[in-house]
Amino acid sequence: MSPDRPAPRQGIARRLLPSVLACAALITVGAPAAAVAAPAAPAGLLSGVAAGGHAEIHPGSGRPVVLATIDVGLNPRAVAFTPGWRLAYVANAGSNTVSVIDVRRRAVIDTIPVGTFPYGVAFVRRGAFAYIANRDSDTVSVIDTAHRTVVKTIPVGDAPRWVAVAPDGRFAYVSSTGSGAVTVIDTATHTVTATIAVGLSPRGIAFTPDGRTAYVANSDSDTVSVVDAASRTVTATIAVGDEPRGVLVTPDGRTVYVSNTIGGTVSVIDARRNAVTATIAVGASPRGLALHVGDRIAYVANSGSDSVWTFDTRTNTVLGEVAVGDDPRWTASGPGGAFLYVTNTGSHSVSVLTLAR
């Protein structure tokens, strides 16, 4: 297993793991959508893709398969694709680096030194820069993606983890786990403009497609903070499951899904009422959530069972599962939503998945 800064209840998670493993069931998840349509994948980048850059959805399919495994740095955490999906950046917490993957070749082509224990990854200014949240440095490294070098280091709160960029690209939100706050960065100047107090140990962040609202998972409060982006204030607090970490918003902005890592569940939130409408039992220690192209099939990475499951988002029924590496954590959909990258923290790799026909 990979190193991590101990949380107050991390030992509880380990003690509960056997019972959580026995509770695996099924899930429905969603994913955020940008205000501007994602660019079509370059010609030849996708395999088995219909005209227009969208992968075909085959009725009855949905079983995940592993296409490749890419070795990266030590203990990878978050992964994100550049606009256009030609490259992917992986934050390697154990080696204090970022691996740059050539998506077509499925190979690491560069390694960039950053701060200590890099965790979150996001791209700003149309991919010109990458933001890397360094948990143990209390900073965000700004990488010039053209030259693949760090050009600025931004001090933020204590133990930053996740980075989420507003749909219009103007601001980035960074969850500072040790500060119980979200740091707001102006992406034009790479400077901090605000700090928003939320719950205890904030982790995942996701925006609604219109950019008006951000949802923040507070892992030690067992809540989700609803942040009004205009006023930068918390307008509601939603009780969810035990140790929420991952957050995704559906493309229509109506539903929010939150993975509860210790609880082994996903909370389903009605975004119009800011209320939990369902709780779904899933695998052991769920974290990363993502959608396949078409939004009918969802993925969840279960770090406690070393697997990725797929589910029908209309019927909430499991479609299949596949073993991946040790301790899978976070996910990213691409290219074109036809493939999934999953970071395997314990085996220092990224699994490339798609759906079987």
From TrEMBL:
Domain YNCE-like beta-propeller: 214-280
Pfam families per UniProt: Lactonase (PF10282), YNCE (PF21783)
Keywords from the named record: Signal
Signal peptide as annotated in the record: 1-33
This protein's name: YNCE-like beta-propeller domain-containing protein
